Amino acid sequence: MTPSDLISELRPEHWAIIIGAAAGAFATVLAAFLAMLGAWLKARADKQVALANVKLASANVAAQQQVTKQQIDAQIDQRLAGEVERLSGELEELRQEMTTLTSKFSQWKAAVARVFHAIAAQWTGDGGPDIDPADIALLEDTIPLRWMRRRARTSAAPISTVPTEGAPS
C-alpha cells in the first residue's frame, strides 16, 4: 500500500479525527509557545519591577538619610544656639564681674598709693603713720593694726625701722 492508497481509503469521519488531532497538536504547541512567551514576559516585567523597587527603595533611603541629616543638623543647631546663648550670658556676667573687679582694684591701688604716701609723709612723726580708716577698709588684712588711725593714741613713740642711737637692740 502506498500513501495515496491510504488517503483514498480514509472516510470523512477519519478526516475529522485527523484534522481534530492536527488542530489539537497545533493548539497544544501554540499554548506551550504562548505559555513560554507569557512566562518570559512575566519574568521580564518582574525584573523591571524589582529594579524599579530597588531604585525606589534606594531613593527612599537617600531621602530618609537627607531628612535624618537635616533633623540632626537642626537639633545640633538648636543645641548650639542654646549653648551660645548660655555662654553669652555667662560672658556678660563675667564682663560685669570683671568691670567690678577692675573698679575695685583701681580703688585698692589708689588706696595703697595713698597709704604709702601717708606712711612716707608720716614716718618720722609721733606715733607712726596716720592712715585713713576708709583706705584701711579696702586693705583690711594687709596693714598692721598699730598703723590704723585711732581716736585716742596710746603710744607716743614713733615707729621706725632704723634703730636709733642708744636704743637697745
Question: What is the strand tally?
Answer: 0
- In DSSP terms (H or I, runs of 4 or more residues), the helix count works out at 3
**Biggest sheet features:** none
Q: Per the principal axes of the C-alpha atoms, what is the gross shape? A: rod-shaped
Mean pLDDT equals 80
Q: Secondary-structure element sequence?
A: HHH
Task: Outline the structure in words.
The protein is mainly alpha-helical. It is rod-shaped and about 170 Å long. The model is unreliable at 160-164 (pLDDT under 50). The protein has helices spanning 3-9, 12-122, 133-139. The protein contains three helices and no strands. The chain has one domain (11-147).
List keywords for this structure.
single chain, 169 residues, mainly alpha, 74% helix
Layout of helices and strands:
Elements: H1 3-9, H2 12-122, H3 133-139
Quick structural gist:
With 169 residues, the chain is an all-alpha fold. The protein has three helices and no strands. It has one domain.
